[in-house]
Specification:
Length: 215
């Protein structure tokens, strides 16, 4: 999801300042994917003193600017539950939000997570946890990015690969009993409500019919 992070940078900085900067902007990201394929994303960025001053001049206290930029950049996902936490002493902030439908079932019946990161350095921490390290240049500024991807612990057969454009993807299996539990509970709840309404309607009709006969 390279475009997500570059969007934040391009929103907050000018190319002139970028050209003057030598130290990289550091980004730490965490993607937590649940059993339904929805992702909770945390984006933590730290700045040099000059970068922070420029960031605050552009953004001020208008944190909705980041939210709107994310929504414009990621139209394929429904984004919700935005939270922004700032640490002025350390010139850093954390932006977190949920992106529904990050992982989807592909044509082979496997869950697939597309990260839009081309040829990153990938380190396997465990079967379902990986880190991806990349360096980008955005209008003259170097961006160091470390992304941690946490896929569902209930999954299996986790594999890393790349799409036809050379961008990193992950695939994994997740049994229907696991990722369908929440959906099943929702369906059962709807059926129970529908059954209750039907019973109430039938009972009401019987009561009306009985009262009519008595009259």
């Amino acid at each position: 999801m390279k475009k997500l992070f570059l969007a934040v940078m391009l929103t907050c900085f000018s190319s002139l300042l970028f050209a003057q900067e030598i130290k990289p902007i550091k980004q730490n990201l965490t993607f937590n994917i649940d059993n339904l394929g929805d992702g909770h994303i945390e984006l933590a960025i730290s700045f040099t003193a000059a970068q922070w001053d420029n960031f605050k001049r552009v953004m001020g206290n208008n944190t909705d600017l980041l939210k709107r930029q994310m929504e414009r950049t990621l139209p394929s996902y429904y984004l919700q539950n935005f939270a922004y936490k700032e640490d002025a002493m350390n010139r850093s902030y954390v932006l977190s939000f949920d992106a529904l439908g990050m992982a989807k079932v592909n044509d082979d019946g496997l869950w697939q997570l597309d990260l839009d990161m081309k040829k990153p350095d990938i380190t396997k921490l465990s079967d379902n946890v990986y880190t991806l390290t990349s360096n980008y240049n955005a209008q003259g500024a170097l961006i160091q990015q470390v992304a941690k991807v946490v896929m569902p612990a209930a999954g299996s057969d986790f594999k890393q690969g790349e799409d036809s454009f050379g961008k990193a993807i992950f695939t994994y299996s997740l049994s229907p009993d696991t990722h369908g539990t929440r959906l099943l509970l929702l369906v059962l709840g709807v059926l129970l409500v529908a059954a209750g309404l039907a019973w109430h309607f039938v009972s009401a009709r019987k009561l009306v019919s009985k009262n009519t006969q008595l009259v």
